[in-house]
Amino acid sequence: MATQHSRSAARLMMAPAVILLLGWMLVPLMMTLWFSFRKYLPLRGGDQGFVGFDNFVRFITSSAFWPSVQTTLVIVGGVLLITIVLGVLLAILLDQPMWGQGVVRILVIAPFFVMPTVSALVWKNMFMDPVNGLFAHLWKAFGAEPIVWLSDASLFSIILIVSWQWLPFATLILLTAIQSLDSEQLEAAEMDGAPVFSRFVYIVLPHLSRAITIVILIQTIFLLSVFAEIFVTTGGAFGTRTLTYLIYQRVLESQNVGLGSAGGVYAIILANIVAAFLMRIVGKNLDA
């Protein structure tokens, strides 16, 4: 049992890390709030004074705001759907005994460690290029006209690129959950004559519910700030401009730090709303 002295010593040793972490989070947040209430144009006079809520009003009434929010949510929803469905199927497949199982698992998980910029460049130049890309050659082999993916199917292309990067993460979490499933339940159901689909729906899927909610929560937090894939491929054109990319355009392209900071505050609010909603779902599943 810990004594008062040991607890005090533990708090003292943890204090530097806690202070550093708080500073790491709070300083950028406070600077964002500060600039959001000011007209700050770095290349046109710098700080031009306090403007109240003018930046917030301008940002939310912009014609690009709501489409960017919609695009963000569509990308998040599309990636979650693909990664969870394919993640469950891959996890079940990788759980089966096979030759070279360890190597196969490493190859499946490998894309998660590729930098977003690199993966976007690979997809853009090697797969989706309308002239020399792999998809173009496949289309030509079947006598079809190649698709200009990044303009004709731009939003789906972004979802596909981001899904490829996040699928290994979902697969790894779900595979770990499947391996903790009691095999005796499946064996008993099989002996009772339950078909494969019924065993999956009534035994495997309920067992994976907690892992799925964790995957949804963690991926959503990161997917709300997708940027590199859009920057490298479409540059925010063809309906792929997310809220994060809109903030980038306001700060760096328009050189309006105050307006971009107001957008950052809106992004924080959106992330907290989504996180609170997901936490309620996760809490219910974890308590079940």
Strand order of the largest sheet: 1-2
What is the count of DSSP helices, taking H or I runs of 4+ residues? 13
Low-confidence stretches: none
Helix content: over 70%
Instruction: Count the E strands.
Output: 2
Q: Please give the CATH class of the domain at 65-240.
A: Mainly Alpha
Oligomer: single chain
Q: Describe the sheet with the most strands.
A: 2 strands, antiparallel
Strand portion, in percent?
under 5%
How would you describe this structure in keywords?
288 residues, mainly alpha, MetI-like fold, globular
Topology:
Elements: H1 4-36, E1 38-41, E2 46-50, H2 54-60, H3 65-94, H4 101-109, H5 116-127, H6 134-141, H7 149-152, H8 154-179, H9 183-191, H10 196-223, H11 228-233, H12 243-253, H13 257-287
Antiparallel strand pairs: 1-2
Helix pairs in contact: 1-13, 2-13, 3-8, 3-10, 3-12, 8-10, 9-10, 10-13, 12-13
3D structure, described in words:
The chain has a domain at 65-240: MetI-like (MetI-like fold, Orthogonal Bundle), CATH 1.10.3720.10. It starts with a helix and ends with a helix. Helix 8 (154-179) packs across helix 10 (196-223). The mean pLDDT is 82. It has helices at 4-36, 54-60, 65-94, 101-109, 116-127, 134-141, 149-152, 154-179, 183-191, 196-223, 228-233, 243-253, 257-287, and strands spanning 38-41, 46-50. Strands 1-2 form a two-stranded antiparallel sheet. The chain is built from 13 helices and two strands; from the N terminus they run H-E-E-H-H-H-H-H-H-H-H-H-H-H-H. It is mainly α and 288 residues long. The longest helix is centred in the N-terminal third of the chain and has 33 residues, at 4-36.
